[in-house]
Amino acid sequence: MDKVIVILGATAVGKTSMSIKLAKLYNGEIINGDAMQVYKNLNIITDKIKKEDMQGIKHHLFDIIDISDNYSVEQYQENIRKVIKEVAGRNKLPIIVGGTGLYIKSALYDYSFSKDNISNQEIEDKYKDKSNDELYELLRQVDAKSCETIHKNNRRRVLRALAIYQATGKSKSEIINMQKHELLYDALLIGLTLNKDIINKKIDDRIEEMFNNGIIDEVKNNQTTSTASKAIGYKEINDYLNNKITLDEAKKLMKIHTHQYAKRQRTFFNNQFSINWVNNDENALENITTLINNKWDL
After folding, report:
1. Residue 165 to residues 86, 181, 227: CA-CA distances in angstroms?
2. Closest CA to 100 of 28, 161, 150
3. pLDDT below 70 — which residues of the chain?
4. N or C, which end of the chain is more exposed by having fewer CB within 10 Å?
């Protein structure tokens, strides 16, 4: 099996900078594991790595989708497996970095998708009169486990989970649990962590920096109803642009929603993966290289 390193962790924990260090040490190339960084033009709101910060390391699956297009975990699975094969075939070490747990799980494991034969339009039409809160309560009644990792405002994912249950009689989480959860790669999963208060402060500081760097203009100039619009901050900024909330309220909501997302990330990682957790302090790189060298002779 091909060797793969995966750098996981909550948003703002420092995954990007660590991935660069590891790529330089182990002749690696970096593969995006974030659902929103696949989109072109959404650079500030997704905190996408800048070209000048890549330090010559090749990056894959960033900026590959127009914001007007939808992109699914199934498409990502197909794309990333091709990239892993191609990178490993050149004797480079694939390093997946990101925080979208479902995307990463679909890449690494024998994860197959339920064919519910219900179109997105059908399920949207059926529940068009239901609010997000009402839909979420319906999902909770049939698949409470999925509610742990799906936000109530992610209407598309809530609807798909309901469609799966209606078509199969089984919850999405039941179907996932029926799979063998076997790794398809010789993978080392490394999770970066920090004290919760430190992460929350880093999140708040990052969001303030986004506003200083022009996030409002980025959203204003990139309007869409595709899955790209699910990026945290997109709705909040549009509400500000449409005079529904103040600028301070938009910032506050972005911070709250990002803190909540970081919590859901930690829950998913702990429930779905066997991870080597490393505190991202001054000893982190040394501790990670020890893990890598103990697993492989690189």
Report:
1. 36, 21, 22
2. 150
3. 113-120, 176-180
4. N
How far is Cα 195 from Cα 278, in angstroms, rounded to an integer? 12
d(CA 175, CA 35): 22
How far apart (Å, rounded) are the C-alpha atoms in residues 171 and 73?
18
What sign for the dihedral angle of Cα 149, 267, 176, 110?
positive
| 274 vs 71: CA distance, rounded Å | 27
pLDDT (0 to 100) of residue 114: 58
Q: Is 234 exposed, middle or buried (0-12, 13-18, 19+ CB in 10 A)?
A: buried
Per-residue pLDDT of 189-244, as tens digits, reads: 999 999 999 999 999 999 999 999 999 999 999 999 999 999 999 999 999 999 99
- Bridge partners, 109 (sequence order): 183
Count CA within 13 A, CB hemisphere, residue 12: 25
Is residue 112 classed as helix, strand or coil in its secondary structure?
Answer: coil
pTM: 0.82
CB distance 93 to 298 below 8 Å: yes
Mapped onto helix, strand or coil, the DSSP state of residue 87 is: helix
- From CA 60, how far away is CA 96, in angstroms rounded? 9
175 burial level (CB within 10 Å; 0-12, 13-18, 19+) = middle
Q: Is the dihedral of CA 68, 136, 74, 269 positive or negative?
A: positive
Please, which residues bridge with residue 31 across strands?
A: 60, 96
- Size of the chain, expressed as the number of residues it contains: 298
